[in-house]
Design goal:
- The complex is a heterotrimer of chains A (about 375), B (about 270) and C (about 280).
- By secondary structure, chain A is α+β, with helices and mostly antiparallel strands.
- Chain A contains eleven helices and 20 strands.
- The radius of gyration of chain A is 24 Å and the shape is elongated.
- Chain C is mainly alpha-helical and about 280 residues long.
- Chain C has one domain (about 55-275): MetI-like fold (Orthogonal Bundle), CATH 1.10.3720.
- In chain C, strands 1-2 form a two-stranded antiparallel ribbon.
- The radius of gyration of chain C is 23 Å and the shape is globular.
- The chains are: A alpha+beta (about 375), B mainly alpha (about 270), C mainly alpha (about 280).
- The interface between B and C is large, with 93 and 97 residues.
Chain lengths: ~375, ~270, ~280
């Protein structure tokens, strides 16, 4: 509903104004659509012994949504997934699906299926038997099992391998079978635990697109776990960034990229330059650079993406910030290059620009004040909090 | 990080485990208890608790002579088994030769074959070769039978050894023999010690093969066996209890060595 | 990577030893089974099939062999029945796996003789069990069948070989990746269905190995019957022992031994090929 969307934006404006810790829309992961969410996680926490792994997680998954839980290793993302699947139980909090308590059910009674990281295909069963496993266990009639297995294999284009054993097919093919095996049961929610991490780069990129279109086709909500931020951005409707057991930000890929809430988010997703400076009378000052900002007086931290710093053309136009920098290093990335530039006062910045053979000496650079996005500082949290 | 189990346990499963452990240990516990029983090996409840039997045991010369014999045999068998078992493990791991499959089976056969067949076939060999039965024949019998233990343990240790370490040694200029002494052997140290411990214990307890190869001098198990034919007293309980304690110490030590080497032992012999 | 000298050094000595002390003795055993013994207790090196003919014709040998196989079968079944659930419990449900595993293998290495002797003292008519039962007034007279019977032999051998059976089953269960169990639950299978459809099939090689151990080793056992079997508990190996002892007919004993060896090798071969069939690695 429009008013809700607007409220989100307005609250974001508030955030700029006050630099206060505003966590609601950015981190509760409330479902963007107005319809009742498929899955609701409320204040979930998990500790193993005295080590806390997840803290106060509240998240919603909408119907038909592709949500990615993104985080480094140790962030708790796999634990969160396993709790939703039912292989771990939460220390506190609850999970609801369709309004009913999910976390009180054992895994074999949840309408949730998982694609495991190493596929977990049954080595003693053929591909077809693997795919039909869930249906056989539910005691569906043979004919129905056969039909649905055929459809599922067709959907992942593995019909020719129905009689093979998992040991005989490649990693990418095993991954498709794992997918088919989960989807054939028509779950309400599909969980994917870093399913592409074992594939090589090219195959991975291909599978990312295939998974995305498959999800659109099938219409089921996908909750995808990965540590690869590029992967998350390519595939997701929304990304939930998890850091050390807490949600850092939950937003669409564009939102998270263009409007990161914290320094950690800005650095984890894509490259950025973090400018720390002083705000006084509506002007932010960082080393030799200064630009207009709506923030109140005090210290400020800004994220400036390398691609938003451009080579200055012609004479400066009013609002843009212009400065001179000396090129230290360049890294060739194909279509673009990443330049390391040193400005007056020793400030080092990364610039991303179109490739050019010889860079040398000093260049004139500029950026727009709107691209300097204010972010919250990320405290160094203790790795494993003792409770 | 230990994972919780959300899979419910069957109720009877732990009880079954208790029953099995009881079955495995009650006879041994009974044995130990009755070694203190003044009035004999049977009879319930045990009363008349006494250390008498142990006193008798320690004065029993024949037993201690047989213990000495057993120790000699065990050390000699250990030497033979390791001397031939270590190269055998190496050969199985890294050499290809005609008859390798047959060799592997032959080496491991005494482990699974009933002792009587090993014992009898060796007996016939000695008979035909004109060798008189003595402690030496027992040593040869144990050594042969226990090569399989040495081979299995060292082979398992070899699997954990990174081939790259040996390649690095060769790359750095050491030749094959230097590499063997400086890299391979030290890595196998724990496996070899474990194997030695195991061989020693098994040799001390061995009776099936020794039964056929015995000459004038008894090993400990055979001495006990002889007593059993004559008459049973709790003195036998006493020596059995002591054997149990030593075996217990040996096996726990072996296990800890294994765990120390690999973090968690492969659950095979 | 390894030089010829190195490879020769590690191959030749063990090969030689094994040839001299394993191959040659089996060959001699084989030869002996074709010889005979003269009336003056001399072994005659003349070749004859007499011994094997005797085996086939004399009843006592057949009956004892079948009785031995029946005893071995019972030991195998009971060991599996005791060993499998224990291995499953340790592998999937136990908290102090390490400690419990040690507890299982300790009896394995305690002397066979000690354990057989322990049962002898327990099962006798004046033994611990009988006097206990009378003490608590469950029985009034000692139970006869406890000792000097096939029952005693089966009981003792089960006690001795259960840890043997446990080991390969435990190894097989430990090798099952736990994510397969989770996958099965994820797909809707209850714990029992998961056991039956996933865990058990993948543990079959271990079961085969453990069963073979128990059967083969029980079949050739002669010590337990000597100690606890009595006249009704005689097994085939006891016959062989007496043929090498008082009855003094080495060739006949060799013939029976050779048959046993052939039978055991056949069973091992069968077990191995079945294990391969059921291994999905």
């Amino acid at each position: 509903m429009p008013s809700r969307q607007l409220a989100r934006h307005r609250r974001y404006e508030m955030h700029e104004d006050n630099l206060a810790i505003v966590s609601e829309p950015a981190t509760t992961g409330a479902s963007p659509s107005s319809a009742a969410p498929l899955l609701e996680i409320r204040n979930l926490a998990k500790a193993f012994g005295r080590t806390s792994v997840l803290r106060d997680i509240s998240l919603q998954v909408a119907e038909g949504e592709f949500l990615t839980i993104l985080g480094e290793s140790g962030s708790g993302k796999t634990t969160l997934l396993r709790i939703i699947a039912g292989f771990e139980s939460a220390s506190s909090g609850e999970i609801l699906m369709g309004g009913e308590r999910l976390d009180q059910l054992p895994p074999y009674r949840r309408r949730v299926n998982t694609v495991f990281q190493h596929y977990a295909l049954f080595p003693h069963l053929t591909v077809a038997e693997n795919v039909g496993y869930g249906l056989k266990v539910a005691r569906l009639p043979k004919q129905e099992v056969a039909t649905r297995v055929e459809q599922a294999l067709d959907m992942v284009k593995m019909t020719a391998y129905a009689a093979s054993k998992p040991a005989k097919i490649s990693g990418g093919q095993q991954q498709r079978i794992a997918l088919a095996r989960a989807l054939v049961n028509r779950p309400r929610l599909l969980l994917l635990d870093e399913p592409l991490s074992a594939l090589d780069a090219n195959l991975r990129r291909q599978m990312q697109l295939e998974l995305k279109s498959l999800q659109r086709e099938v219409g089921i909500s996908f909750v995808f776990v990965t540590h690869d931020q590029e992967e998350a951005m390519v595939m997701s409707d929304r990304i939930a960034l998890l850091r050390m057991g807490e949600l850092e930000q939950v937003a669409s890929p564009r939102e998270i990229y263009n409007r990161p809430a914290t320094a950690y988010t800005a650095q984890f997703i894509g490259h950025t330059n973090l400018l720390s400076g002083e705000v006084k009378d509506g002007v932010a000052r960082c080393c030799d650079l200064s630009w207009r900002t709506g923030l109140r007086d005090g210290p400020g931290l800004f994220s400036l993406r390398p691609e938003n710093i451009r080579l200055a053309a012609g004479t400066g136009s009013g609002s843009r910030v212009r400065f001179r920098g000396k090129i230290l290093r360049q890294a060739f990335h194909g279509a673009t290059e990443l330049l390391q530039v040193e400005c007056a006062d020793g400030l080092a910045l990364s610039i991303r620009t179109a490739s050019q053979e010889n860079w040398s000496g000093d260049v004139d650079l500029e950026f727009s004040p709107a691209d300097a996005v204010p972010v919250r500082a990320s405290e160094i949290r203790p790795a494993r909090e003792q409770i | 990080m230990s994972r919780e189990r959300t899979v419910p346990t069957s109720r009877w499963l732990p009880w079954h485990a208790v029953v099995v452990f009881g079955f495995l240990y009650l006879p041994i516990v009974t044995l130990i208890v009755y070694s203190f029983n003044g009035s004999g090996v049977g009879g319930f409840p045990p009363h008349d608790l006494t250390l008498n039997w142990y006193r008798l045991l320690f004065a029993d010369e024949a037993i201690w002579t047989s213990v000495l014999n057993s120790l000699l045999v065990a050390f000699a068998a250990m030497a033979i088994s390791l001397t031939f078992g270590i190269p055998a493990a190496l050969a199985l791991d890294r050499a290809n030769f005609p008859g390798k499959a047959l060799f592997r089976r032959l080496v491991l056969l005494p482990l699974i074959l009933p002792g009587i067949i090993t014992g009898l076939s060796l007996l016939m060999l000695f008979r035909e070769a004109g060798v008189k039965l003595s402690l030496l024949t027992i040593v040869l019998g144990h050594g042969t039978a226990l090569i399989s233990v040495a081979t299995t343990e060292v082979f398992a240790g070899l699997q954990k050894l990174e081939r790259a370490q040996e390649e690095a040694s060769l790359d750095l200029g050491a030749n094959y023999w230097q590499t063997f002494w400086r890299v391979t052997l030290p890595n196998l140290r724990l496996s070899i010690i474990g194997a030695a411990l195991l061989i020693f214990t098994l040799s001390m307890d061995e009776i099936a093969v020794s039964f056929f190869l015995i000459g004038r001098y008894n090993t400990l198990p055979l001495e006990i066996w002889g007593r059993l034919r004559r008459g049973i007293t709790p003195e036998i309980n006493a020596i059995s209890s002591i054997i149990f304690l030593f075996s217990l110490a040996a096996i726990v030590t072996w296990y800890r060595l294994r765990v120390g080497a690999e973090g968690k032992p492969d659950p095979v012999l | 990577m390894f030089s010829r000298a190195y490879r020769a050094a590690i191959t030749v000595p063990p090969l030689l030893w094994v040839a001299v002390f394993l191959l040659v003795p089996y060959a001699i055993l084989f030869c002996y089974s074709f010889w005979s013994v003269s009336s003056s207790q001399e072994i005659v090196h003349s070749w004859t099939l007499d011994n094997y003919r005797q085996l086939l014709q004399v009843n006592v040998y057949w009956q004892t062999l079948f009785r031995s196989m029946w005893i071995a079968t019972r030991v195998m079944i009971f060991s599996l029945f005791l060993g499998y659930p224990l291995a499953y419990f340790l592998s999937f449900h136990a908290k102090r796996k390490d400690l419990l595993y040690q507890l299982v293998i300790i009896p394995l290495w305690v002397s066979y003789l000690v354990r057989a002797y322990a049962w002898k003292t327990i099962l006798g008519s004046d033994g611990v069990l009988n006097t206990l039962l009378q003490y608590v007034h469950l029985t009034r007279h000692p139970l006869d069948f406890l000792l000097y019977s096939p029952f005693a032999v089966v009981l003792t051998l089960t006690h001795i070989y259960t840890p043997f059976t446990f080991l390969p089953i435990y190894a097989a269960l430990e090798h099952i990746p736990r994510n397969l169990v989770e996958a099965s639950h994820d797909l809707g299978a209850s714990p029992f269905q998961t056991f039956w459809r996933v865990i058990f099939p993948l543990s079959i090689p271990g079961v085969l190995a453990g069963a073979t151990f128990a059967f083969v080793l029980s079949l050739g056992d002669f010590l337990a019957p000597l100690l606890l079997g009595g006249p009704s508990g005689i097994m085939i190996s006891n016959i062989v022992v007496s043929l090498f002892g008082a009855a003094y007919n080495w060739p006949l004993g060799a013939a029976i031994s050779f048959c046993m060896l052939a039978l055991v090798l056949g069973l091992l071969f069968l077990s191995e090929s079945l294990e391969k069939k059921w291994s999905f690695r």
